[in-house]
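Late entry, uridine-5'-diphosphate complex.
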Amino acid sequence: MPEKYDFLIVGAGFAGAVSAERLASQLNKKVLLVEKRNHIGGNSYDYYDDAGILVHKYGAHCFHTNYDDVWDYVRNFGEFNNYVHRVRTYVDGKKLPIPINLTTVNSLLDKNFSEAELKEYFESVRVKLPKISNSRDVVVSVVGEYFYEKFFKNYTFKQWGVYPDELSPEVTSRIPIRYDTNDRYFGDKHQGMPKEGFSKLFERILDHRNITLATDTDYKDVLESVKFDRIIYTGPVDYFFDNIYGKLPYRSQSFEFETHDTEYFQEVAVVNYPNDHRYTKITESKHFTYQKHSQTTIVKEYPEALGEPYYPMPMESAKKQYELYAKEAEKLKTVYFAGRLAQYRYYNMDQAIKCALDLIGTMGD
Ligand code: FAD
Ligand code: UDP
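Prediction complete; structure with ligand written out below:
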């Protein structure tokens, strides 16, 4: 006879793993966590490559949050360093700070603007719009066409396969525009990287006697053989419903790793390439971890139309299609949909964690 579980959890990324941990330790529930990949951690998974360097398998993952409860929670499972994310973007032969700030503008235009002068300059070039309807509007309404073209237009096309005017405002709104010299990528209250990496953090999150983990397992293959009361589902929502309303659009990515015989390849962890190459960025993960090593590994990120679903498409048409699935999901009283793929939202890691904490928080005993 198969054992009976209180919950079947699908997916061992942050949404699934944190749900499992909270159910197991806070509510003393028995959980079966199934993951179709051969590892835990979802897209936040990292590992030591052949050279012995800690790298992120699915692209650069930097932890940042404004949620105090999320920050307190993750630090129960490992120490975080004080890494602050800084990004450069390669435009017209120069590596400039992004988000666009005073230094970016002065370097690109060969000017010496003060903060007040920069505000005046942007005021004179910005496109005055009655309303912000898309991701192009977000940018041109603050910095005008020139900066939009150099920094956003082509990067976004590479990343999403469409230009910013077809994407919801929330996409480019993620990147602030600054008038001072602050070059932090994220404005969040808390940021840092797990000192031993994300995968180690996940191992500790899942280290509980009430949690049974099965990797290399698609949940549909165990539905008949396992007994459980409720499901927490963190995989793609369309797959759950057998694509009854058609496959939702996702953006995928491929990753090309290179190890170099030099201590550091570039001056910061991430350099973006909006207008050159087919890849969007080069990431060098040693900057995240402060790992000492005579070599370094970099990864080039190539956005792809097909492949693993990494990004929900932030467009109105896709959101409308998702709403059909969301209505089906609402009808199911013993299945909970949580996380980036299940809720079809452009979540960061902290939002996936928050969603799990809040979900289990509402369950009580
Ligand atoms: P996931 O991590 O995707 O986990 C879902 C899991 O479900 C996966 O492991 C999947 O294999 C499993 N699964 C799916 N279907 C099934 C099935 N049928 N059966 C069993 N298992 C299944 N966030 C940040 O905060 N900072 C960053 O810097 C950052 N950078 C990113 C860079 C890239 C390239 C990408 C793609 C994402 C990035 N993110 C970043 C977002 C971050 O990856 C997500 O917010 C986070 O992974 C969401 O967690 P999740 O648990 O919802 O989903
Ligand atoms: N973006 C851009 N140029 C950049 C950085 C970002 O055009 O140099 C746009 C692009 O559309 C991207 C979005 O802003 O998808 C959000 O960027 P972010 O770095 O938050 O994306 P992530 O890689 O974290 O999903």
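The mean pLDDT is 97. Will revisit in the morning.
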